[in-house]
Amino acid sequence: MNKNAVTVIPPRLLLLVFLSLMFSACNLTREEGLEKRLAGIVGDARGIVGIAVITPDRDTVAVSNDTVAGQPLMSVFKLHQSIALSRLLDKSGTGLDTLIRVSHSDLNPETWSPLLLDYPEGDITLPLTELLDYLLLQSDNNVSNILFDSICSVAATDSIIRSLGIPESFALRYTEHEMQLDHAKAKSNWSSPIAAAALIDRLFTDSLVSQAKSDYLRGALRRCITGIDRIPAPFVGNDSVTVAHRTGSGYVNERGEIAAVNDVAYITLPDGRSYTLAVFVSDYSGTLEGAEKLIATVSAEVYDYITGR
């Protein structure tokens, strides 16, 4: 063996190695840059803030100003409920045109329920699509309770979502009615932001349910009218950006803090690229408007990052 032998690397190979290293360094710098920008926003927030981003390139960024494993989902769990319910119906070949009977006793007057406002006497029969519209567009609590009781229980919902391979940093234990009776139970319905982001991302990028149900669920989330001042806020008046999202809001706890102000969204840009964003704010000592403004600020920052601004 010649100890003085020199290995000559072709110039083209050297160039490829250099470009590969440079590209990797650039990506790392961009991801770290987003983390730093988001950390700067949430660092002095008046509550626990958790953020998860899935970029168009499938990179993930997670930022939190606390070490908690998860935060209360509140009505974000209606996303989980609608997906689990749809998967259960797919197994039996049941469509969303199925009729559901709603009795007067199903309509609790002490909870948020646009359905009750529209049908104060109850005793009606409605197609499942109409009930899901109330659930996903207006976050109707009575509808959530009805569907848990009649089609897919909370325990079954937890099991079905867990079977999808979603990151297991979540748990579903109680209905809206049970949480209304005991606010402390809301903390048992929890998730990390990345688990919530992964679920809505899978709904839009995978075949979690049949095509007809996928089309319906995706469309309903795009038509959601709650939480417009949260993730969608930077895009109001900009029809070229599409936001499909599900919100959750909590009660005021014994310390005067808002238990939760949440939003999780799948956002599609004019160039066809999409990204996912989840922002969970919990134990917030400011106002609801302040928490929503914080979420909107995060949304604008992520949009600027994704679009290279």
Short description:
The chain has helices at residues 11-42, 77-92, 114-118, 128-138, 141-150, 154-162, 176-181, 193-205, 211-222, 288-306; strands at residues 48-54, 60-64, 71-72, 99-102, 124-127, 170-171, 190-191, 242-249, 258-268, 274-284. The chain is of the alpha+beta class and 309 residues long.
Write the layout of secondary structure elements.
Elements: H1 11-42, E1 48-54, E2 60-64, E3 71-72, H2 77-92, E4 99-102, H3 114-118, E5 124-127, H4 128-138, H5 141-150, H6 154-162, E6 170-171, H7 176-181, E7 190-191, H8 193-205, H9 211-222, E8 242-249, E9 258-268, E10 274-284, H10 288-306
Antiparallel strand pairs: 1-2, 1-10, 3-7, 4-5, 6-7, 8-9, 9-10
Helix pairs in contact: 1-10, 2-6, 4-9
Shape estimate? globular
Please tell me the CATH architecture by its name: 3-Layer(aba) Sandwich
The CATH topology annotation reads as Beta-lactamase
Q: Can you identify the CATH class?
A: Alpha Beta
Domains, number: 1
The overall pLDDT average reads 92
Element-by-element helix/strand order: HEEEHEHEHHHEHEHHEEEH
What structural category do the secondary elements indicate? alpha+beta
Low-confidence stretches: 1-7, 13-26
- CATH level 4 superfamily: DD-peptidase/beta-lactamase superfamily
Taking the alpha carbons of the first and last residues, their distance comes to 56 Å
Main sheet characteristics: 5 strands, antiparallel
By DSSP, the count of extended strands is 10
What is the tally of helical segments? 10
Strand order of the largest sheet: 2-1-10-9-8
